[in-house]
Amino acid sequence: MYSRLRYLPLVVKVVGALAASLAVAVLWTLVRHIFFDYWYAPGPTSAPLLSIRSVVHSLNALLFWSALYFFYDNYRLARENEIRSLRAESLARENQLKLLSYQLNPHFLFNVLNSIAAMALKNDNRAAHEITVKLAEYLRYTLDSEPWRKVPLGEELECAERYLDIQMSRFENRLAVQYDVPVGLNSSYVPNLILQPLIENAIKHTIASGATSVSIEIRASIKDYKLCIDVVNSIDAAASVQMQENGSGWGLSNVRERLKGYYGDAAAMHTLRTADRYSATLKLPLEQSATGS
Predict the structure, then answer these.
(1) Under a CB-based contact definition with an 8 Å cutoff, are residues 196 and 151 in contact?
(2) Secondary structure of the chain in the HEC alphabet?
(3) Exposed/middle/buried for 40, CB within 10 Å: 0-12, 13-18, 19+?
(4) What average pLDDT values come out for the chain (293 residues) when binned by 10 residues?
């Protein structure tokens, strides 16, 4: 039972340890008195099966053992986190190179620059200026950020919004985006650029492959003491067939490797495809700053 409590909040650990120790103390006291006082060495007047003194004596021993267990377990978790942190930094450095070659490839820049040129030809200088600024901000963030560090979810969503703004300028009304993220979760920490491959995967297998339109929804919530982030996109029949033939590619496998490097078994990603929807769900340990809600 204690192994199941290791990733839960401290209050839950304390309550669980007290309840488990008390239950075992009562059971052990009963077994001990039945064995010694009623079977092994019965006296002329047998002691009562249960007494507060005997239960407290057993409870003290179990609580002392529990304290040693959680102390050692926390030490072991700290060592595992240190090893995972080193591994995550190494993976993230490699991921930065893959991310830049995957995201900022000549095809992507070619399409964006073509969109800017088309706006300029239409004398839509305001739109051309806005998209140029967004592209510059996006490039500066992805090039200057440290991909191995964790950032607040609000900062991660700002980067995703820059990228989606650029894509919406290309596809116009064919791409719709919705956000459902409670304000209190913006201070929760997530791996830097962890949402980028999920969003690119949604666009790559839908609108960029010829779909008439696509809607993307980004949601965040807390479930079972975990931060859950959903990236859901609509798909059509052609996109569904293409995804079955080509698979999820580098993007999703990279996300899984990064999650494993950061959190080990404490985090996971699940995907679900239906006839008209595709969703990727991240489940991360809830980590918030001291000023977060």
Answers:
(1) no
(2) CHHHHCCCCHHHHHHHHHHHHHHHHHHHHHHHHHHHHHHHCCCCCCCCCCCHHHHHHHHHHHHHHHHHHHHHHHHHHHHHHHHHHHHHHHHHHHHHHHHHHHHCCHHHHHHHHHHHHHHHHCCCHHHHHHHHHHHHHHHHHHHHCCCCCEEEHHHHHHHHHHHHHHHHHHHHHHEEEEEECCHHHCCEEEECCCCHHHHHHHHHCCHHHCCCCEEEEEEEEEECCEEEEEEEEECCHHHHHHHHHHCCHHHHHHHHHHHHHHHHHHCEEEEEECCCEEEEEEEEECCECCCCC
(3) exposed
(4) 78 86 86 70 60 82 86 84 80 63 60 84 86 85 74 92 85 87 94 86 75 88 94 76 54 83 89 89 87 46
Task: Give residue 189's pLDDT.
Answer: 95
Within 8 A by CB and 6+ apart from 265, the residues are none
CA angle 190, 234, 275 (to 5 degrees): 120
Instruction: Write down the pLDDT at residue 49.
Output: 65
| Measured distance CA(92)–CA(100) in Å, rounded | 12
Strand 268-273's sheet: what is its strand order?
Answer: 175-180, 214-223, 226-234, 277-285, 268-273
Residue 251: which of 187, 208, 213, 286 has the closest Cα? 208
